[in-house]
Amino acid sequence: MNELISITQNLLAVVFLMSSLGKITNFTQHTQIIKAYRIVPNLFLVPSLIVFSLSELTISLTIFTFGITIYHTYGIVLLLCLYTLAIAFNLFRGHQDISCGCGGILEHERLNWGLVYRNVLLITIVIIIGIICENMVIKADVISKFALFLISISLYLTIYIYKKINIIRSKINLLLELLS
């Protein structure tokens, strides 16, 4: 059980780390994505992206350091609720041709209700892990923690590669349709 919790914690940390790094390295693009949501006034586009990016970065780095605490649970749930409400709000308005702006393996080119369901699932997982971690101490030696970290990275990379293969497959199918 401890191993599964550690892997889940690490995987969440990697997801948030890659998401924040994606926002930081593609700052202008992500500013335009936030603008496309038509929720944040132009004056607050850059500050909001900075807050979101730094929040995700802080959450990920401190999960690696301390594991998930109650503060992580609140922070992650708050961020995911904000992101989910923004997606749902735009879906209700009929704005689907927007990238979700999630970054990393969570990135999608178009908004859809699956993103809302995915985020609700993530919120549920975070709350469950937060409750479990609040009520138990996870003990592992350095070698075990490193091995579990590598397993988490491997899971992240597997999901990332699977996603990229599906994107390539859909582009090949589109190209074949155009050629036939």
From TrEMBL:
Residues 1-129 form the Methylamine utilisation protein MauE domain. The chain crosses the membrane at residues 6-22, 43-68, 74-94, 115-137, 143-162. The lineage of its organism: Bacteria, Bacillati, Bacillota, Bacilli, Bacillales. It is a multi-pass membrane protein. It comes from Fontibacillus panacisegetis. This is Methylamine utilisation protein MauE. It is found in: Membrane. One of its GO terms (biological process) is methylamine metabolic process. Its main location: membrane.
